[in-house]
Predict the structure of DUF4097 domain-containing protein.
Amino acid sequence: KYLYSFDGQNNARFSSSKTAFPAYPLLPFQSSDTLIEAWCHTVAPRGSLHLNLPFNTVVRPLNPQSYPDMDKAIIELHFDSNHGTEVPNSQNMSQIRDFVKLDVKFDQEIAKMNVAATTIPGVTIPMVCMMWIPLQSDLTASVLSNSNLTVEKLEGNSLDLSAQQGTCYLKNLKCGSLNVQCSAGDIISQSTMLGNIVFHAGACGGILADKLQGSSVVCQTEMGNIHVKSMYTDTAVMGTLAGSIKLGQCHGKMTVQGGRSDVEVGSMEGDVDIGLNQGSVNLYLSRHSNSSIDVEDGNISLSFPDGVQTDLKLDCSHVNLGNNVTLESTNTDVPNQLKGYIGQTGLASVQARTRSGTIAVSQRSWIQSTNLNFQQDES
């Protein structure tokens, strides 16, 4: 007889506790007391691993000091003890094994390992799968339902990760290509992601990243926000239907497309092409050749460093020039269009247009562009 009861949502509960098992949102800390089962397999140091699991999953590289040959895959299945859930005793822990079957298969010819799990339909038990694999493994991982996926410090050629309603947590990954898809959850990236990157978050899922670096970077959402602190890339594409886009330091050539969206770029070193249906644009161009901003309904704020030399073509009902901006205007017969240049003509150009809104142009000193806040000494 199993020591479980079920609530109206088919969540398994220990008979000694009335607390439903919560989903695990962050990196777990597990111990031998929570261990359900463990496996250790010999694998190729540069092989591939395919995961398809119905519970929270954490994948990390092997410790190089403990496994210098990088030829093992370690799998531990734990009872998820987070959020104050009572850990079952050893007898009950053994009964949990009857609720889940882990299926591990190998293909030695192509150095491929497949890991899948089956559970009793309609039963939810709090589990987390911890895996340690060779540093340079390729990884294809999918987690189901509201399970979360965490991947850290791998350096494989290809990382292909997906979640349904759960969140993908990433930290310090180096690879040739990184493809992350969340049907409804968030993508949270800590430290540096190095490689050709594609992030897609559906529904209300958002994208939050510290540093993205690679030849190509693509970040797309439906309703969720995109927030990237820094980005170093040859080409980048940022797109959302109804979320906001906030970017810090950006280097390279970038395209931004939004529906009902506000766009803020703290510093752009390179060319940018922005198109919005509705929303505002706040853009600082630290260095550019040819850039374009097109907004159907909303205001545009353009900032340049002191000493900038650029042509300007501004289409709007009203242009607001900062006090320190000296714009040499040129003749134009087009209504609501202002053409001119700052500094010297013919070196760079910016075209900005808003059908329903205004355009503001300003220049910043170097210290202003750093966004540092200084407090006045009143002593």
User: Anything to note?
Assistant: Residues 189 and 209 are 4 Å apart (CA to CA).
